[in-house]
Predict the structure.
Amino acid sequence: MKYIDRIARGLSIGAFALLLAGCLASTDNDALYVVKVNGSVITYTQYRDALKRLIPSDRHYAPEEITELKKDLVNELVEEELVLYEARRLKLKVSEAELSAEADVLRKDYGDELFKEAISERYGSIDKWKEEIRRKLLIQKMMERVTSGAKVTDEAALRFYKDHIMDYYRPETVRARMIVAGSYEAASKIRKRLNTANFAVVAEEVSLGPENKGGGDLGFFAKGEMPKEFEAVVFRLKPGEISQVVKTDYGYHIFLVEEKRKAIKEDFPSLKKRIIERIRADEADRVFSEWIREQKKISKIEIREELL
């Protein structure tokens, strides 16, 4: 998972699982540390509480899954400490206004009662939770500082568009209904009863196909997604037209075309902003990942495996 995605996830209430416990009440276990990064420690209590959020007691994991989750968690905690170490060295700060604005957004999104209940259950108090948000915002500030040089030119965006042109092409599609009968005689009798208004009702009554419960609805599909015999008929019909009886290897069919959508290729001007944002996000993640790797090389990191 991208580091930037992890930061965004950590700032939401739905992501409490991977937030560090912050300034929890002191216990005897606070004398033990699991990780030390440039002199800053993550205590056994902090690690244990983070792990509880990551691995709920009501969910079963295989031993190898737990081992992998622990490994990922420790790596994430180390990376957060590396970012915070540099943020403190550069004397970056999170203002009270920034903190309040973030808290207000989350409170508004989730509702006051649900918000308070979640905070109380997982953090004990609003103040402790705010300190965790302050921590995450500080990490975000440092991340933005490191990736500020990730620029994207119009030329790069156009090149990306051309290289991924098929991602922005939607082929012609058709929405059809189908009735399946066991014989030509049966299908012919059904065909005489049909009009656009009653097709779905009749399909539900008599069709032998599994889609009969939905009135024979096949949904939207493009060429290549259905048997060729089906496509040869439905793509020739106009919306509102009903086919004659069609024999295939699957039985005897009658089709109603309800809607057609023309093929569309989105042009570059309409996509330019979205493409630039996508490239910038990828480039920012690449820059930040490289920065993290360098920090790991030059930092003093101790992990006490026996406590994991």
User: Anything to note?
Assistant: Residues 7-28 have pLDDT under 50 and may be disordered. The first helix runs from residue 3 to 10. The chain has two domains: 3-151+274-307, 172-262.
